[in-house]
Each structure stands twice: as structure tokens, then as C-alpha cells.
Amino acid sequence: MLELRGVSKFFDGLPAVKQLDFAVRHGEIVGIIGPNGAGKTTMIGLISGSLPLSSGQIRYRGLDISRLPPHRRAYLGIARTFQVTQPFKGLSVRENVMIGALFGRRGLKQAAAREAADAVLERVGLAAKAHFRADQLTVADRKRLELARALALEPELLLLDEVMAGLTPTEMEQAIALIRAIHASGVTVLVIEHVMQAIMGLSQRIMVLHQGTKIAEGPPEQVLADQRVIEAYLGERYAREQQSRLGAARPVPQKEGKEEQG
Ligand SMILES: Nc1ncnc2c1ncn2[C@@H]1O[C@H](COP(=O)(O)OP(=O)(O)O)[C@@H](O)[C@H]1O
Ligand SMILES: [Mg+2]
């Protein structure tokens, strides 16, 4: 469904994403992890079109979308959330979501956008606050609004950038359930998250970015046992904790120098 081929992005000559090859199949839910500054948010920007590529190519459903502006990619079914939530602060929650619907769906009438917005607000648990101004929302509700705005596009591919950051454990459980339901409804999902328990539980496959480069990719338990991932991101103790949480029966393989993961 989505394919990045040799994708790079430089900021002032410094690489944020370097020669990245990465693909997502229709119907997958894939996690992306990596330390701060690894290039995760940049990658989302490159896929959604908010950032132009420096080099490489991005294909979506066989189409080269590398040079398409964000709204054209949205028409094709690609929606994203922003790590730093960016609502139109003076507008109501409902209006914010309507804008999402209108942005992503060519020719949608205002009444239909309103209907779509209300349906999505119901789904994310914000219906009672539809009339609130966006800047009156709590952190958790702002995250819900981000998700609602993206969902209003009726995406085929949903890119989630740390939608669980700052949530309480209960709110996080609700978010996980919601993401599962979205995925179960047929949406392909790419999820960036630092909360290991959440991402390991959600993802069928995980890709690890470090300094703009993919250092590992595979099923959660394999990535957790990857020595490079442990060194670059997880740390020994944390990796073991997560492994026992996953109930991995396999022992942690120590440095095997498996190159096929890189
Ligand atoms: N708009 C920008 N201008 C300049 N540098 C940027 C910009 N966005 C990101 N960067 C840099 O690119 C690198 C990757 O950042 P980012 O994609 O935000 O990482 P992550 O989301 O994995 O924490 C960092 O070094 C960051 O400082
Ligand atoms: Mg980020």
C-alpha cells in the first residue's frame, strides 16, 4: 500500500531521515519507535506531504505521491495526527473536525461535513464537548480531537504521531481500544509511540528508527530482542521487562549479528 524507496530528508544540510526503505501492506498495523530526534515525525511529514522530500520516492497504492501536496494525499486516503496538537483554537471542536472532513474529501458539502464530524466525535468520546472551543480542551481531549480530525477524512492509511503521550493509564487504555477498533474497521495504521506497552500490544510489526536510519524491523518480540535496538533505545532492563510482559517464551538471543534485520 505504501512504499518508501531511498527516502532522505535534510534540514540545513543535516539528515533527519537517511536513505529509508520501508513498506506497509494494506490492512497492517505497524509501530515505529526510536529515540527522540530519530526522524519519526519527519517521516510522517514526508508521507503526509507536509514536508517535501530531499530525495527518494514515496509510492501509495502504486502511485508516485512524492510531489503531491498534502490535500491531494488526503484525497487519496492518507491522514495524520500531529505530535504537537494543532487545533484552530478559536473554533469549536465540531468545526475543527469539519475542517478535517472538508480538507480530505473533495466536494463534501458543509452539512455532510457536520454530520461526518458528529459521527467521528461520538466515536472518539468527544460528542458532549462538540461545542467547546478547541483551546478549552484538556490534553487528553486535544489528542482525541487530533484523532477525530484525521478520522473525519475517512482515511485508508492513518498516521498516528504520539497520540498517547501525556495520557493517564485509563485514557491510554481507551486510546488503545479505539486504535484497535479503527484498525479492525479496515484502516491501515502506522503508529509512533514511546509507551512500549501500548506499541508492543498494538503492532503486528515494528520498525525502529535511529538517527534517521532503520536499524531493525520485524515482529515485536524480535525487535525487543535485537541488540542494536536495546543499545540505541530500549536499554537491557527495559527490553527484558517488556519481553516478559509479552510472554515471550524464547530466551533473548545475545549478539548474533543478524544482518537481515537492518
Ligand atoms: N522543521 C525542522 N527544521 C530543522 N530541523 C528539524 C525540523 N524538524 C525536525 N528537525 C530535526 O530532524 C531530526 C529528526 O526530528 P524528528 O523527526 O522530530 O524526530 P522524532 O520525531 O523521531 O523525535 C532532529 O534532529 C530534529 O531536530
Ligand atoms: Mg516526533
From TrEMBL:
One of its GO terms (biological process) is D-alanine transmembrane transport. The keyword Transport applies. GO terms for molecular function: ATP binding; ATP hydrolysis activity; L-isoleucine transmembrane transporter activity; L-phenylalanine transmembrane transporter activity; L-valine transmembrane transporter activity. Residues 2-236 form the ABC transporter domain. Signal peptide: none annotated. Pfam families: ABC_tran (PF00005), BCA_ABC_TP_C (PF12399). GO terms for cellular component: plasma membrane. Keywords: ATP-binding, Nucleotide-binding, Transport. Residues 242-262 are annotated as: Disordered. SMART domains: AAA. PROSITE patterns: ABC_TRANSPORTER_2. Residues 253-262 have a biased composition (Basic and acidic residues). This is ABC transporter ATP-binding protein.
